[in-house]
Amino acid sequence: MGDRKQARDEEFQSFLVGRWPRLLRTAFLLTGEQHAAEDLVQTTLEQVYAAWRRVASTDDPDTYVRRVMINAHARRHRRRLKEFLAPRTDSDLVPEVPDSGDRIAQADDRGALLTALSQLPPRQREAVVLRYWEDLSESQAAEAMGCSVGSVKSNAAKGLAKLRAIPGLAETVTQGGRK
């Protein structure tokens, strides 16, 4: 019995070490704050650890974990709606350490992009983050968000339209990519 628990713990630890940077990045993009992102990842991993036997037996544990994170984020949002919707300032945003394949890291002004992202309503932010930063398909994002593919398309389109409407944001990102 002890050997199985130890093997399960080692398997979970291996999963955790391999996924930590990506989970933290996704959580940061969802919350807009480093400490809130760390709390969200920790809450997610606590729930995943409790159900690890079931999670490990799925075809795609990453999908399961992503869904747990989205649900945890949604619960946190519902509890703190006013605090969450309060506009954030540049000083509230703590830059993450980008991984080498992160295209957003190539933009000159990450702060402007992250500030703009934090101004989106939660469902639009989730759709944009899952579709364009996590590079999930519409059906994968719909599964993670617990909604229809049409809702993902609608929220992503509205979110992108709001981001494009922010003066100077498109130029900042475009200029960052040309340098």
Written account of the structure:
By secondary structure, the protein is mainly alpha-helical. It has one domain: PhyR, sigma-like (SL) domain (Butyryl-CoA Dehydrogenase, subunit A, domain 3, Up-down Bundle), CATH 1.20.140. 74% of the residues lie in helices and 0% in strands. The longest helix is centred in the first third of the chain and has 30 residues. It is elongated. It comes from Streptomyces ossamyceticus.
In CATH terms, the superfamily is PhyR, sigma-like (SL) domain
Give the tally of β-strands.
0
CATH class: Mainly Alpha
Structure classification: mainly alpha
Profile the largest sheet: none
CATH architecture type? Up-down Bundle
Which stretches of 5+ consecutive residues score pLDDT under 50? Answer: 93-98
Helices and strands, in order, run as HHHHHHHHHH
Number of continuous helical runs = 10
Work out the helicity level.
over 70%
Please tell me the overall pLDDT: 79
Shape: elongated
- What would you call the quaternary organization? single chain
> Roughly how many Å apart are the termini?
58 Å
How large, in whole angstroms, is the Cα Rg?
17 Å
What's the domain count? Answer: 1
- Relative strand content: under 5%
In CATH, the topology is named Butyryl-CoA Dehydrogenase, subunit A, domain 3
Family: Belongs to the sigma-70 factor family. ECF subfamily.
InterPro entries: RNA_pol_sigma-70-like, RNA_pol_sigma-70_dom, RNA_pol_sigma-E_actinobac, RNA_pol_sigma70_r2, RNA_pol_sigma70_r4_t2, RNA_pol_sigma_r2, RNA_pol_sigma_r3/r4-like, WH-like_DNA-bd_sf
Domain RNA polymerase sigma factor 70 region 4 type: 111-163
Protein name: SigE family RNA polymerase sigma factor
